[in-house]
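Following up on my earlier thread - several people asked me to post the actual chain instead of describing it. Fair enough. Here it is, all 166 residues.
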Amino acid sequence: MRKVCLLLLAGLLLLPAVALAERGSPSGGGSLVVSDANARLTVSGRGLIFGHLNRGTITVVGDYKPDDNTALSTVSGAKMKFSGNNVVYTGSDVRFLFPGGKYTLIVDGTGIDISAVGTGKLSAVGKFLPDDGTISVDGGVPQPVDSITTVLTYGKGNANSAGKSR
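Reply from S.P.:
Thanks for posting it. Predicted structure:
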């Protein structure tokens, strides 16, 4: 019974995020899913992004620009500090939500799970562990994060979603 209640609660919490994603997502928006990554990820995009990391930092580069003034970002489980024009969150069991707008995030840590809806670009470099997690774009087959810089785009105009650069 407890699991059913938790699932219902999780569903209720995600409904507003999904509604905002639908409203704020540009036409032709896609998706990004990062699962259990141990890496340094740079995600630049427009739309909704949320996630969790076991331990590490999230750097919001420049200003997060929400689509409307009611879309407030939240980060829990982390201490915040300012570094120039950036905001840096550091902690354990960190959860974050940027509910619609333009963003650039650098997520560096372990146990990273990210979901994004909209359009954007991801750059990822693994931490040289045996399993550095997986990345999937636009519903495609998950691919492993590795120590080579992986650059992926998702969403509108994404004819070729995967590419590796060295």
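The CA atoms of residues 43 and 80 lie 19 Å apart. That should answer part of your original question.
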